[in-house]
Amino acid sequence: MTLETHLAPEDEHNQFLLSNVHPKDWKNPRAAAKYDLAVIGGGTAGLVSAAGAAGLGAKVALIERHFLGGDCLNVGCVPSKALIRASRAAFDARAARDFGVNVPEGVAADFPRIMERMRKLRSSLSPHDSAARFKELGVDVFLGDGKFTSPDALEVDGQRLFFSKAVIASGARAAKLPIPGLWDAGALSNEEVFNLTELPKRLLVIGAGPIGVEMAQAFARFGSQVTLFETMHGILPREDKDASAIVQKSLEKDGGNFFCCVEIEGVERRNNETHVRFKSKHGTWGEKIFDAVLVGVGRAPNTEGLGLEKAQVQFDKNGVKVNDFLQTSNPKIFAAGDICSVYKFTHAADAMARIVIQNALFLGRKRASSLIIPWSVYSDPEIAHVGLYEAEAVNRKISVETFIQKFEDVDRAVLDGESEGFVKIHIRKGTDKILGATIVSRHAGEMIGEITLAMTNNLGLKAIAQTIHPYPTQTESVKKTADAYNRSRLTPFVKSVLAKWLSWGR
């Protein structure tokens, strides 16, 4: 895929973005005799590795073939959240009458302006990831195809870069689903959907995972007739079933049509329309016509063209193989981020890069398995999760107790009109040790941090129950869940003892 494809349309915002993440006039520096750390990939894992190492005094080379900032800035987190925020504004405007606020009938989303806002905001954030900024940090930035030529050397732009240690942070890309005719018909992935300037009237979204659900809901709120296909049963099939059910209800309220257990037999573009033939295990079958198809499922690691064989680095279809210290089969080379992790999140890549800096440069022994990584699905309401699901704990033969606080009993959620949701916390039975948690709330991604902090620092539900939370807030729901644990400890025996104590004092 060409760089220009990523940047359509060629307006002032995308030109400014390009000037930062892949400036046309950039001249690669003369390679140093040897680098303490060479980093392949300028996404989150690569940028954090490079900036952190340079800040600690290392001589660092950073190599990027496409755009600095990686998927997150250019075709992932940043543009998608800009669209999601706009879709929430549209939803809130239409729902204003429920709060006694009169608005005109037929509130409509201006899709071209929404997309321009996204491009403007994306470009405004790009200086942080820019080639110029990393040069100022002391990093030698090389734009071009980098590949290993030996276990201790890279080549880029005709120059040989020798290193003491290296980091592979080349990330992942949208997988090309093997559906007959899909890509010939012009299907969109996350690498093209943010180039749109006109709203598809009829949109098919393939995949009801996080990306698919987020985009399906956003486009439905913009006014598209959205259909969502999923091969498995239900939306967000890997999340807590109670949580997924709430999000599905919300998506259907927004006008999204959902079909599960679907097999797409073929796709064909005819007369500026996309014809999709499909069947479902539930008996639904036929052909539907769409104006655009968005593929929101599947990621493939970027291992091609890196010369990993010459570097003696083992890899497979899932990416580069690493041990718990993020070290590859070549002890001089480490990996971080989507290229080697099942947790394909920006914050996970950031955390892994910090481990690499310690282990590669300072003889650290930090383990990736020690990371407690939360994540969030940015639907409305959001689903946030950390740790184990209850089913996982049961499969591991861990006895669990689960405490639930529904938002219908949280005053601020009721007042906000956001009472569809809950906090669900799993603990090891007989203790207050938190094993995992799921939150469903419009602000779930903001709220999961408290539970993650507790788990990271071995604080149990007692500590949360003892922590004063401001009233009225939705985060009070976390404390209410912890209070439910405390009440569970008030057994009949304890009650009888307390009653005797009180009666003695009368």
What can you see in these coordinates?
- The strands form six sheets. Strands 1, 2, 3, 4, 5, 6 and 18 form a seven-stranded mixed β-sheet that branches. A five-stranded antiparallel β-sheet has the order 19-20-23-22-21, sandwiched between helices. It has a four-stranded parallel β-sheet with strand order 10-9-8-14, covered by helices on one side.
- By secondary structure, the protein is of the alpha/beta class.
- The protein contains 16 helices and 23 strands.
- The chain has helices at residues 3-6, 12-21, 44-55, 70-75, 77-95, 111-125, 131-136, 210-222, 241-253, 346-361, 390-395, 411-416, 444-456, 461-465, 476-488, 492-504; strands at 35-40, 60-64, 140-143, 146-150, 153-156, 159-168, 172-174, 202-206, 225-229, 257-259, 262-270, 273-280, 285-290, 292-295, 299-301, 315-316, 319-320, 333-335, 375-377, 382-387, 400-406, 422-428, 434-441.
- Helix 5 packs across helix 8 (210-222).
- The chain has three domains: 3-174 and 300-370, FAD/NAD(P)-binding domain (3-Layer(bba) Sandwich); 193-297, FAD/NAD(P)-binding domain (3-Layer(bba) Sandwich), CATH 3.50.50.60; 381-488, Enolase-like, domain 1 (2-Layer Sandwich), CATH 3.30.390.
- The radius of gyration is 25 Å and the shape is globular.
Which features does this protein show?
FAD/NAD(P)-binding domain, 5-stranded antiparallel beta sheet, Enolase-like, domain 1, alpha/beta, 23 strands, 7-stranded mixed beta sheet, 506 residues, 3 domains
Describe the secondary structure blueprint for this structure.
Blueprint: H1 3-6, H2 12-21, E1 35-40, H3 44-55, E2 60-64, H4 70-75, H5 77-95, H6 111-125, H7 131-136, E3 140-143, E4 146-150, E5 153-156, E6 159-168, E7 172-174, E8 202-206, H8 210-222, E9 225-229, H9 241-253, E10 257-259, E11 262-270, E12 273-280, E13 285-290, E14 292-295, E15 299-301, E16 315-316, E17 319-320, E18 333-335, H10 346-361, E19 375-377, E20 382-387, H11 390-395, E21 400-406, H12 411-416, E22 422-428, E23 434-441, H13 444-456, H14 461-465, H15 476-488, H16 492-504
Parallel strand pairs: 1-2, 1-6, 2-3, 6-18, 8-9, 8-14, 9-10
Antiparallel strand pairs: 4-5, 5-6, 7-15, 11-12, 12-13, 16-17, 19-20, 20-23, 21-22, 22-23
